[in-house]
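Quarterly update, task 2.4: adenosine-5'-triphosphate-bound model.
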Amino acid sequence: MTALEVRHLHKRYGEHVAVDDVSFTVEEGEVFGIIGPNGAGKTTTVESIAGLRTPDSGSISVLGLDPIKDRAEVRERLGVQLQESSFPDAIKVAEALELYSSFYRDPADWRELMELLGLTDKRTTQYKALSGGQKQRLSIALALVGNPKIAILDELTTGLDPQARRDTWRLIERVRDTGVTILLVTHFMDEAERLSDRIAVIDGGRVAAVDTPAGLIAQVSAVQQVQFRVSQPLDKSLLTELPDVTTVEITQGRWLVTGRGQLLSSVARALARAQVVAEDLRVAQRNLDDAFVAFTGRAPESPEPSERKAD
Ligand SMILES: Nc1ncnc2c1ncn2[C@@H]1O[C@H](COP(=O)(O)OP(=O)(O)OP(=O)(O)O)[C@@H](O)[C@H]1O
């Protein structure tokens, strides 16, 4: 069954078009990733789904409901963890969870969530005294406290150290296993690849591609790369003139040959003809970073880990 349907979403701020034309569908139980460069319109899209922004045109259906017209019903079914959520400094972990759970008709057991998120021993700690990782876990707990069918997680692990990020991923997998549909906005390609069943690449307010992580990678893997060092000097033109080769770069003695088709065997034959041995030969494995570059023309940004510590 369809959990979310976004059709031709368009949203501008004044003259600035933040979301031009975005459409996608998310099935129940899916983890659906959204990736794209800064300012691509990802947050505006998820805020519109959450009913926090009113689209200028297009339609959004959340479990068959309209986020603006059916705001109260959507609130009951949708949990939102947005970028940089802030809470009153003095509120304690247990107080925040209890308070938020009181906003919902059929809340989750907030004590169980506190335990699941590893916050029980911080129950009496004030928000301001929590570490970055703990704040992040609290905001995830608060997104889940209404027992939502769909959770929106925006920049889930930005600012966390690698260990805390991996812990958070495991947590999200556990949440997914309970059947919650997850919409995940992320700058981290490894995170998107690990957690998402499907991913939308958004660029310039439009969907550049939607596919499984493997599907996105396969779409760009027609381009291949071979790297090696040469056992003796080699005339570069012997490779550049091969029909399967598009570029040849040499950096600090390392040859990087990009091309298509039977690239590896063409290069190997050319080297053999020149009686040159390829040392330390590597055939580049395509990953989601490459797909991101191919679809957006830009390298993914890795947000700087903040000063905050995970725990
Ligand atoms: N409240 C606002 N008023 C004016 N412009 C805005 C507002 N919010 C966002 N924008 C602009 O709209 C565009 C899309 O922003 P949005 O936050 O949706 O992108 P994003 O893909 O989530 O970016 P990031 O990855 O940096 O969070 C950007 O150019 C942004 O500067």
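Highlight for this quarter: Residues 2-218 form a domain with the Rossmann fold fold (CATH 3.40.50.300).
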